[in-house]
Write a structure and sequence with these properties.
The protein is built from six helices and seven strands; from the N terminus they run αββαβαβαβαββα. It is about 35% helix and about 20% strand. The protein has about 190 residues and is an alpha/beta fold. Helix 1 (about 5-15) crosses helix 2 and helix 4 (about 85-100) runs parallel beside helix 5 (about 120-130). The protein has one domain. The longest helix is centred in the middle third of the chain and has 14 residues, at about 85-100.
C-alpha cells in the first residue's frame, strides 16, 4: 500500500466513511458525481477514488487554481476550466478522450454547490460525442459512504437516460441537502 492510499484510508476511517462500488472495465469513462453541495465533496471524492483504485481527473473552475493551491490541485487530477465558453469546453474534452489511452473524468453535473433547477448537460454531451459510458459516482453524507454505481451509455432518448440517473441518485444526500440540484437537463423539455 502506497502513502496516498494509506492517507485516503485513514482520512475516511477517521471520519467514519466507506468507499463502495467498482469502476467499470472501459478504458475511458465519464464519472458523473452527485450530489455536489460542499467543498468537502472534493477530499471525500478523491479519497474514495484512491481506495477504489481509480486514477481520476476532475474539472474545476479556473479561479480555484490560484497559487499555491493550483499546483496541488493539478497534482490531485484537477483540470482548470473556464465556464464562459461551454461549447468550446465540450469539444476540448472530446479531443482529450480521443487522444488518451485511458481517462476517467469526474464531472459534477450540478456545476455548483448551490441549488440549481437544472443539471449542466456537458457530462452527457461529452460522453455521447466521445462515445464513452457514464458511470454514476456519489457522495452520500446520510450514510457516510461514497463510490461508484451503475454505468449508462447515452442513447437518443435523453429523458429515459435521465430517468435511470434520477432513480440512482434519488436517495443520495449531500452535506447540505437543501442545496441539492434538480436532476434534470434543459434538453429533456417540459
Amino acid at each position: 500500500m502506497n502513502v496516498r492510499t494509506l492517507l485516503a484510508r485513514t482520512f475516511l476511517r477517521l471520519n467514519g466513511w466507506e468507499a463502495v462500488g467498482k469502476r467499470i472495465s472501459d478504458e475511458k469513462i465519464i464519472v458523473a458525481v452527485a450530489p455536489h453541495t460542499s467543498n468537502w465533496d472534493l477530499p471525500y471524492g478523491l479519497a474514495i477514488a484512491r481506495l477504489l483504485d481509480i486514477q481520476i481527473s476532475w474539472l474545476g473552475k479556473h479561479t480555484i487554481f490560484w497559487w499555491p493551491l493550483g499546483p496541488i490541485l493539478r497534482a490531485l487530477g484537477g483540470v482548470p476550466v473556464r465556464r464562459d465558453h461551454p461549447d468550446e469546453l465540450v469539444a476540448q474534452i472530446e479531443r482529450a478522450f480521443d487522444e488518451a489511452e485511458t481517462l476517467s473524468l469526474a464531472i459534477t453535473p450540478e456545476g455548483t454547490r448551490s441549488h440549481t433547477p437544472y443539471w449542466k448537460s456537458g457530462f452527457y454531451r461529452i460522453a455521447k460525442a466521445a462515445g464513452v459510458p457514464i458511470q454514476l459516482g456519489f457522495i452520500d453524507y446520510s450514510r457516510k459512504r461514497g463510490g461508484l454505481g451503475p454505468a449508462i451509455t447515452p442513447s437518443d432518448d435523453v429523458r429515459a437516460d435521465m430517468d435511470e440517473i434520477r432513480a440512482f441518485f434519488a436517495d443520495k444526500v449531500g452535506r447540505y441537502p437543501e442545496k441539492k440540484g434538480t436532476i434534470r437537463l434543459h434538453e429533456e423539455g417540459e
